[in-house]
Amino acid sequence: MSGLTRRRLLALAGAAGLGGVAGLTGCSSVLPAPDTSAPGFGEDATGTVRVWCRAATQDGLTSLVEQFNASQDRLTVELTPVLDAQYVTKLATAIRGGEVPDLVDIDDINSMLFIYRDAFTDLTDLIAELPYADQLSPGHLGLATRHDRVYGVPYLADNSLLWFNLELCEAAGVDPDTAVQGFDQLLDAARAIRALGPDTYAWSFPGNNTGALGFVVQPMVWAAGTDFITGEVGAQSGHIVGNDAVRAMLELYRTLWQEDLAPQSCFSDDASRWGSDFRGGRIGMFPTNLAVAVTSAEDDFPDKITSRLLPGPDGGGSFFDGGDNMCIPRGARNASGAWQFVKYALDLPQQFDLPAGGYTPVRADVADDRFRETYPHASVPLDNLHAGYAPSTLAYNLIYNQPDGPWLSMFRRAVFDGDLEGALVQGQQGWDAILSQAQV
């Protein structure tokens, strides 16, 4: 499934987020934790492993399961895809009913919803025993960590980067490395690209799709070492008013809009054709993921682009560490078989070809010379794993993926209406209200 479709599905997940969080209360305390220290755990398991996956990543998991089942005859993996918009609610219902799958492949941003309610198995010691543990994506692991214990392992990554059209950059005299040194340099580059002609724009963004917008814009705040949310999970509040990086990011986008550096279509862009203008050669700089920039491209377009980390106001860089974590629910019947399948999914041969489907591996050590030659656009996140991030919170869907949530409202008020001060105050109130509600 394309990166476009994955991002659009984020908007649908918002409604499920509120019901899912409420439904998780008290859902898991009666389910026993598997004994992961038992001799032979995760080795030579037998029987059936029931795996749930997101419909958005079903294609890749289907192939993985087929390969695993063909590789041995002791263990059979049965895959059940679940619509992204229904995933949280359906899993919460299964946990309350005591009938859980053995393994869940879950949107990493939703991991904490279940970890907070003690619904997943502690995998800390198992992960530490992996010979490549220090090569795994820290952003994914961070979303699966609570009180220094880890309850999920990364499987695949969906990362946002800043992509450059090299032909337009050369014509405008823009150096991508200089452009990402800060917002001032980014605007200088944008004005130079826009000056190339009436049909050439510097930038494009999905201004009417809350999930896709959050995916590509938030890293420009994280690159400054701060976030929109502050505090530990369960006691969080918004960090909007007084956050210089949030203000600078909104001012940047207001300038891009006000100076006509981005097309007017950004106002109503719902990501239904996300990236078509960039792939059409009309946009100089474009924040998006590998799937939209490369996998969906035709002909030789990928040869004409390059990517960098999304910069902060004064440089630095970050990217959204989206994708999937694999977690074993408490109460799993075949947790040993589930862990054996997880280890297979993380083996280098399986990780190597994830970019063919528009995803990035979660192991830095996959990026050898052969990988870089085969997938030349997939190594930037792997070379900068420390820069990947996503906020660990119980309210992500409600804030960033729900169409009437505070994120989209704040952005549009500041960027399109020009009311920055009002947008910041409104945003602070919105973040605080939702976080307070979600943490009850």
From TrEMBL:
PROSITE patterns: PROKAR_LIPOPROTEIN (PS51257), TAT (PS51318). It comes from the Bacteria. Pfam families: SBP_bac_8. PANTHER family: ARABINOSE-BINDING PROTEIN-RELATED (PTHR43649), DIACETYLCHITOBIOSE BINDING PROTEIN DASA (PTHR43649:SF12). This is Extracellular solute-binding protein. It comes from Auraticoccus cholistanensis. The lineage of its organism: Bacteria, Bacillati, Actinomycetota, Actinomycetes, Propionibacteriales.
